[in-house]
Amino acid sequence: MKIRLLFSVFTIMLAVCANAQITTVGLIGSATPGGWDVDTNMIQESDSTWTMTVSLIQGEAKFRANDAWTINWGSTGYPFGTGTQDGPNIPIPAAGDYDITFNSNTGVYYFSVHSDIGIIGSAAPFGWDKDVNLHQDTADANVYHINLTLGAGEAKFRQNDDWAVNWGANSFPTGTGTQDGPNIPVSPGGDYNITFNKSTGEYSFVLTSFSSVGIVGSATPGGSNPTPMSAASGVGNWTATAVLVDGDLNFVGDTTAASWGGTDFPSGTATLGGPAIAIPAGRYLINFNSVTLAYSFEPVVYYTTVGIIGSATAGGWDTDTDMELNPIGDSTDWKLRTFLTVGELKFRADDDWAVNWGSSTFPTGVAERDGPNIPIAEEGEYNIYFSSFLGNYGFVKLQVFSTVGVVGTASPSGSWDIDTPMNKDPNDENNWILPEATFTDGPAKFRAEGAWMFNWGAVDFPNGTGTQDGPNIPITAGTYGVTINTNSGEYAFGDPITSTTDLLNPASVKAYPNPAKDVVNLDLSAVDLKGNVTVSIYDINGKLLQTTVQPNAPLVKVNVASLPSGFYSLHITDGHFIIGKKVNITR
Asked: Which of 189, 289, 482, 528 could pair with 151 in a Cys bridge, judged by C-beta atoms 3.0 to 4.6 Å apart?
């Protein structure tokens, strides 16, 4: 019998305090002259204000103090942002000469590129007081661009931070500016990719921040109705998995003006209003960035074997411990029950480093190809789940019990010292069964190993969810069949059980589709449940996410549209019996 023991370690680092001694602040990173090896030091203008003028290349950068990583600041914002301790690397989108300001007290920074064209106005960050300079395009010296957050308001383009040469028009999001033309009306506010041609006056504002992005077209499951994508880590990143048919599609945002297409497959760069992308039939992992407009369609790959390897595994870094295909999913879902030590590991395919996955998070995460080693923080036995298509993984630590029983003055023993033993379900180690026993009025609890270290109780009868060291269960006298799932704590005192194997076998309930997207269908025709059916959904760490109650019927539909991709446990009960079922949800 297994129970999940979950341990979370939260580390808070206080990087900058009143007594912190900062003698220097510098810029470091792949975009800087010194790379990631040497800081380019800034000039201290006041106690907390630092400035510099420097040539940068496209890449990343961070601020740090005293030429060491003890105190450092980063963020995803550009050209403005607020750096935080150990924050992400700051993206530098283009080479150029920059004036940089940084406040070591607040973390606020600004990268101002040297340029003869800027944007100004009530919609811009500095209002009508100061221009935000645009980057000059390397392929066309007349074209300028920037990704910038704007408010609802007005804006104009101007040259050399002066009103002598300026462009405006009354159209948005595209138009042709003229000398001393009207202010450009910007609405709504949001994150925009802005381009401007000083030769022709043409401009465009392409919204890059969306509450939703989807795919639409004859190749998609929804046809003319958008099939939604999910927001992914990183600015502007969206992802989806979908079975596509021969046809075409466009990416669409949550505004009617936001539709992108392209001519290349399986990857390319979309254009606003571009043609539909021609798609051959197949199952794909689809990625799209609403800022850069880069897209890709990665077909599913089926591997002969997938295993774990690393210092935390039995085979070390020399030999893979193979996983097995998970019968609850498709041929990209893998599982393994094994013992791990403190150390590191990775997933890899076909016993070879050509295809491997890793990540820095534990016990759950999304592994990336050639990602870092996964840290195993605690020794123990684990159930491991992994999707070689999506990269989702989870490590569930297990505790194995040899006995579980019912104890208390209402129990058959009539004592708090003598357990009435239950039987382990041969099909599911989480389920324990007492087929038939007579109880009296009074209190009782469940416990493991005949001791109080692991025990479950609650105030509900005849069914409920017991918690560790919970209250005594108030029993009404009667003869019952009793079940408990020690993984979730769910218990039931119901009719005497005469056919436990067939009734409690998870295979008796069919769950489809699996993997699922928005709805899981449960076929209960093979089991004899009575009355209303309660379906509880738990994540792989045992956290209850949602509960629904439906009339018992041959087919029960469970809405899972709000759940992210991953592996989940369904616990199905009618107040008499409990059945466990695992499902995989993909987006």
From this structure: 189
- Mean pLDDT for 321-332 is 76
Residues in a beta bridge with 5: none
Asked whether the predicted pLDDT for residue 4 surpasses 70, the reply is no
Burial 529-539 (b: 16+ CB within 10 A, else e): beeebbbbbbb
Backbone angles phi, psi at 476, to 5 degrees: -95, 130
Say if residue 254's pLDDT is above 90.
no
- Euclidean distance between CA atoms 411 and 442, whole angstroms: 8
- What would the two tokens of residue 169 be? 């028009």
Please tell me the number of Cα atoms within 13 Å of 172 on its side-chain side: 20
- State the pLDDT at residue 1: 31
User: Which residues have a Cβ under 8 Å from the Cβ of 94 and sit 6 or more positions away?
Assistant: 58, 113, 135, 138
**Nearest to residue 568, comparing CAs of 534, 548, 545?**
545
Cα 298 to Cα 266: distance, rounded to the nearest angstrom: 7
Residue whose C-alpha is closest to residue 566's, from 404, 337, 418, 393: 393
pTM, rounded to two decimals: 0.46
- Give dist(CA 394, CA 233) in Å, integer: 18
Angle at 225 between CA 189 and CA 262, to 5 degrees: 70
168: left (phi over 0), alpha (psi -120 to 50) or beta: beta
Measure the CA–CA gap between 358 and 370, rounded to whole angstroms.
6
- Distance set, CA 328 to CA 325, 365, 524 (Å): 9, 20, 17
Query: Three-state DSSP class for 170?
Result: coil
Q: How far is CA 515 from CA 332, 336, 522, 548, in A?
A: 10, 18, 13, 20
- Cα 72 → chain centroid: 26
- Domains contained in the chain, CATH given: 25-113 (2.60.40.3620), 117-207 (2.60.40.3620), 213-299 (2.60.40.3620), 306-398 (2.60.40.3620), 404-500 (2.60.40.3620), 505-585 (2.60.40.3080)
Residue 451 exposed, middle or buried by CB count within 10 Å (0-12, 13-18, 19+): exposed
Phi, psi of 417 (to 5 degrees): -105, -20
Question: Would you say the C-alpha torsion 546, 547, 551, 552 has a positive or negative sign?
Answer: positive
Tokens representing 216 are: 């639409």
Tell me, what's the pLDDT at 551? 78
Q: How far apart are CA 113 and CA 223, in angstroms?
A: 44
521: number of CA atoms within 13 Å, CB side? 6
Give the strand order in the sheet containing 431-439: 423-424, 431-439, 478-485, 490-494, 463-465
Collapsed DSSP state (helix, strand, coil) of residue 276: coil
CA–CA separation, 84 vs 68, rounded Å?
Answer: 15
**The dihedral formed by the CA atoms of 231, 235, 236 and 238, expressed in degrees to the nearest 10:** -30
CA 255, 256, 262, 265 dihedral sign is positive
Q: How far is CA 459 from CA 302, 479, 542, in A?
A: 49, 19, 21
